[in-house]
Design a protein that fits this description.
The protein is mainly β. It has no helices and 16 strands.
């Protein structure tokens, strides 16, 4: 396989049962440019309950066409932690994790080698990958890196109801757990009365 944006020198000789001919005159060939090689992600870091910072290194080669930008893709990881790589099926065998649903979240310029992704969900694990762009197209994505946003207070309890309230009698108050614990289990509930 020929490498992109590379000059090659060629010569040809013919051969038969009696031997080989002299070599032809040398001719040159230069292959065209191609999409760049993949960049490499350096690190991710949660900066808040709803934001993660990501940095990367440029591709090793632009394959003859300068890098003119980067695309950052993101996927929400299933399960509780970013390190979950396999699961165990009902028969006890290890199974591959479900395919990730990638979406482009950032388009960065050619000099940008870091970004912060906002509006994420608290206490959730995300995977990120970066692709380099040039006039010939997009590189393959870098190896994904993962980060978990910081935990936050839970969402409010749901379906609050109160009944049986009579003077001098205890009130009966019911509610359901919050829909989201935002990365930290609920440890207690506070009930407030006012009159």
């Amino acid at each position: 396989n020929l490498q992109p944006s590379t000059r090659y020198l060629l010569r040809v000789a013919a051969a038969n049962q009696m031997g080989q001919s002299d070599w032809s005159p040398i001719s040159g060939l230069t292959t065209g440019a191609a999409p760049p090689s993949a960049p490499s992600a350096k690190f991710t870091q949660a900066v808040s309950a709803t934001a993660v910072s990501l940095s990367w290194q440029p591709p090793e080669t632009d394959h003859g066409s300068p890098v003119n930008g980067y695309l950052v893709d993101m996927a929400l990881l299933p399960g509780a932690t970013a390190s979950r790589a396999t699961s165990v099926g009902s028969n006890g065998a290890r199974t591959a994790p479900p395919a990730l649903s990638w979406q482009q979240v950032v388009s960065a310029g050619p000099m940008d080698l870091c970004t912060t992704i906002f509006q994420l969900r608290p206490g959730k694990s995300y995977s990120f990958r970066v692709r380099a762009l040039n006039a010939c197209g997009s590189s393959a994505p870098c190896a994904p890196v993962s980060a978990t946003t910081l935990a936050a207070p839970p969402s409010a309890p749901m379906r609050l109801s109160a009944g049986g309230a009579r003077a001098g009698q205890p009130a009966r108050v019911k509610w359901e757990a919050p829909a989201e614990d935002h990365g930290s289990p609920v440890t207690e509930y506070l009930v407030e009365f006012c009159w």
